[in-house]
Amino acid sequence: MNSVHAIVLAAGKSARFGLYFNKLLISLCGTPLITHTTQLLLSLNIATTIVIGHLKEQVSAAITAHNPQATFAVQEEALGTGHALMCSKEFWDTDHILVLNGDMPLITADLIMQLIALHTATDTAVSFVTAYPDTLDHAYGRVIVDGESTRIVEAKDFTGNLTQQYPINAGIYIFKRTFLEQYAEELKPNNAQKQLYITDLIGIASTQRLGVNTFLYDYATVHGVNTLAEFTVATQIMRERIAKHWLAAGVLIEDPATTWIDVAVNIGAGTRIAAGVHLLGTTTIGIQSVVWPYSVIENCILHDMVTVYSHSVLKNSTVHAHTSVGPFAHIQQDKKITIPSSLASSVYQL
Q: For the whole prediction, is pTM greater than 0.70?
């Protein structure tokens, strides 16, 4: 998409995640959390620059492993989201600049494409995503609309009625490049945190009557991951999405609530996955296979009509067609499993 360049903000320290975790690097369904966003942008053919800071070498390495086309800008000092955006200025090379946070693994192509379509169809300085949160007790900036005025008030600066329902700022924006070039340097640290906020650009665009679009979307899709509790919620939603995808593709997942399937896994139609199974990494399973309960299969290739009996553990191995493994098999090296199965012809039919 030649008219849009994406800037992903990923320089933070993940303070609310605790001492031992960097939220952008923690694995979510088999891939680092940050890469869910960068892979989505890659799939949409949107050139992407990631603003990095804390643990910048590790974050850039994780992203490059999945998206070698990504470019990087460095925020050496944490002076706020507005400052992070300014650190990427040399990459503002298209008519429109899409800006989003790196801790939003649940956003979808539908959301991004609808936002871009709304923005490019109107002569406005900025368009941004809003949502209604599940609770009034949240740390999101509130979107305040008063007549023709639109502004965002960060949670720590909000002094209004906390019992009133306001739409929240999701942290996904698309700006005209010319607007950013003219006004981004006018940001001031006039807030409780003494930082430069991207959100103040909404107020500037509104005050200057340059046009502001809001795009209301589903909160479950746009809420970020700021705490370990929010990470578990995001994981559950992602697991449900993955299960629905494979069910629609003709894979029988007996108990999605206890089944774990990573995002890079592939499963052939007519395959049956029993309760408690974990399919991890880059595992590929052919058609009409059966994986019995509580087996763990990681980075394996299972060809067509394979049976893996219960409580088996397979890692980095290949199982050829019409073969059975287990129960209680434990294979963790590069093995080529070709034991003929007398049960291969009686694989469950769906």
A: yes
Domains and CATH numbers, the chain: 4-222 (3.90.550.10), 249-346 (2.160.10.10)
Quote the DSSP letter at residue 347: P
Question: Going by C-beta distance under 8 Å and a sequence separation of 6 or more, which residues neighbour residue 191?
Answer: 154, 156, 157, 197
In this prediction, residue 158 carries a pLDDT of 67
Q: How far apart are CA 279 and CA 251, in angstroms?
A: 13
Give CA–CA dist 205/203, Å, rounded.
5
The residue with tokens 């809001």 is 214
HSE, CB side, 13 Å, CA atoms: give it for residue 219: 14
Give the C-alpha separation, 283 to 266, whole Å. Answer: 7
pLDDT of the residue at 341: 45
Picking from 63, 84, 64, the residue whose alpha carbon sits closest to that of residue 173 is: 84
Q: Give me the mean pLDDT over the 303-320 stretch.
A: 94
pLDDT score of 224: 85
